[in-house]
Specification:
Elements (H helix, E strand, L loop, with lengths): L3 H11 L6 H15 L3 E5 L27 E6 L8 E9 L2 E8 L11 E6 H4 L15 H16 L86 E2 L4 E2 L7
Antiparallel strand pairs: 1-2, 2-3, 3-4, 4-5, 6-7
Length: about 260
């Protein structure tokens, strides 16, 4: 936001002639745009002509208040992030000055929404001419702050070009690639840590096979009746009983 001192310096350097309080407020609007970095390329009736007929050459403000019912200024931006052209029009209405400002772009060119400001002239400018420009304004600082916040700042800046935002509208720029350092240890999320299958504390038979080769094998359960366990029965399995030359003894059988 520009300061009132910067706007006053523009007014003093331009040395305008005021016919009324509306002139003083309208020129303060003009001086605020100049102090914000814009250059005047047309004023008065010429500013209403087609944009194709206007050049970006900076001109003086001569004839700025020649029109009876309006003040018209056209500006060109002096920096890449400023609008290429802006038109500002002020219309006196009683003790008010109705100000409209809008960027002027070619067909298909992106522009900002127009801004409107109603200024009560008697609150900021004096009706009586004075020797000093400072004395011709009741509150130049308040007027400049109002113009800056309601017009200049609201028009904003030109959005970044497609060359600087090649990732597209609405997409976030990806984070820079991180370089992996083998000498450092990085914390791993729980889902990324390697998992190993649990080692059973029993088994080793066809019913519950033991772990594979090279894996620690804990002590096994001796199985049913002290045998190896499982569902397959061998010749020495206790379920067959003890076989001998004189007798066969099965579990649960009474001795002979």
């Amino acid at each position: 936001m520009v300061s009132a001192d910067a706007v006053l310096a523009v007014i003093r350097a331009s040395r305008p002639s005021f016919k009324s309080a509306h002139d003083r407020v309208a020129f303060a609007v003009h001086a605020t745009f100049l102090a914000s970095g814009y250059s005047l390329i047309a004023t008065g009736s010429r500013a209403l002509s087609a944009s194709s007929e206007l050049k970006d050459d900076e001109i003086s403000c001569e004839g700025w208040n020649d029109m009876e019912d309006a003040y018209v200024f056209r500006y060109a931006g002096t920096h890449p992030d400023m609008w290429k052209a802006i038109e500002v029009k002020g219309t006196p209405l009683g003790d008010m000055l109705m100000v409209d400002a809008a960027p002027i772009g070619s067909k298909g060119e992106e522009t900002s929404q127009p801004c409107h400001l109603a200024i009560k002239v008697t609150d900021f400018a004096s009706e009586v001419e004075a020797k000093s420009y400072v004395q011709q304004y009741k509150s130049l600082e308040g007027l400049v702050n109002l113009i800056s916040s309601s017009l200049v700042d609201k028009l904003g800046k030109v959005s970044q070009s497609s060359s600087t935002t090649s990732i597209g509208v609405g997409l976030e720029e990806p984070e820079p690639r991180r370089i992996f350092d083998e000498t450092q240890s990085y914390p791993q999320p729980e889902s990324m840590r390697p998992s190993f299958p649990p080692i059973p504390a029993y088994g080793g038979s066809d019913l519950m096979p033991g772990p594979g080769a090279g894996v620690f094998q804990p002590r096994r359960d001796p199985g049913y009746f002290g045998g190896p366990g499982g569902v397959l029965l061998g010749p020495n399995d206790p379920l067959w009983g003890r076989l001998g030359p004189d007798r066969a003894e099965f579990p649960g059988q009474d001795p002979p």
